[in-house]
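Technical note accompanying the year-one report. For the benefit of new consortium partners, we illustrate the data format agreed upon in the data management plan: each record pairs a sequence with a structure-token string. No post-processing was applied to the example shown here.
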Amino acid sequence: MPAAPARVVKSNHRPAKRGALANEAGPEACFVAFDTETTGLDSLSRIVELAAIRYENGREVGRFATLIDPGCAIPRPAMAIHGITDRMVRGQPRAPQAIGRFLEFAGGATLIAHNASFDVRMINGELDRARLPRLTAPVMCTRTLARRYVPGLWDYRLETVAWKLGVTAEPQQHRAMADALLVAGIVLKLLISAPRSQ
């Protein structure tokens, strides 16, 4: 099924209430929670889906979602995790175009993901292949934040942190938008709803 077309939201930035997010991500408290789905976990893997949610001053102002044609077959083990098939990505944008639209959507914001180093590595890998500049936006990781603010969990997988904080999962787990929503919920719980002095 084709992904919904991306929607870019432009808005006037207003000063946000200061708190932990202001300390961590800047005084505007403008962030984009995002997630990727891929063909695998190694450096040669390709992105097949990218989704993001933009927040300004603690309020959602827009969403972005697109499937991506990786230019190769999606391995069955990856397909079993996220459910994205070769047929679904056929005819969808290629990574450089999709990432360009994502960066336009995320302009001026801090990017936040769970295990962010993986998602950043995947995006930079696609940009490298296209001989385009790498990401330069500031990036935060909810896994790192959770280790700081919610110590003692048995693991720090996205679902575990979300469960601990009472963030509701979307039915389509392991799809990019569902996971981005969990990331956004974690950020709101950790850094906006419950400001800390750290």
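Partners are asked to follow this layout when depositing records. Residues 17 and 122 are 33 Å apart (CA to CA).
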